[in-house]
Amino acid sequence: MSKYNTLWEYVQKSRKESFHLTFEEIQEIAGIPIDHSLKVKTAKVKN
After folding, report:
1. Residue 38's pLDDT is what?
2. Residues contacting residue 26 through CB under 8 Å, at least 6 positions apart
3. What is the CA radius of gyration of the chain?
4. pLDDT tens track for 13-29
5. What is the pTM of this model?
6. What does the DSSP 8-state code read for residue 17?
7. Handedness of CA 27, 34, 46, 43 (dihedral sign)
């Protein structure tokens, strides 16, 4: 079982084509802390 199963279930149940979630929302839905090093890597890729 993946630690993100709850998040994937949320995405599937939403039935939206696309949506935006903050790191805080993902953390709340998944029920686990998010590795904030990912935020830094994502920000660097966008720049």
Report:
1. 57
2. 7, 34
3. 12
4. 998 888 788 888 989 99
5. 0.60
6. S
7. positive
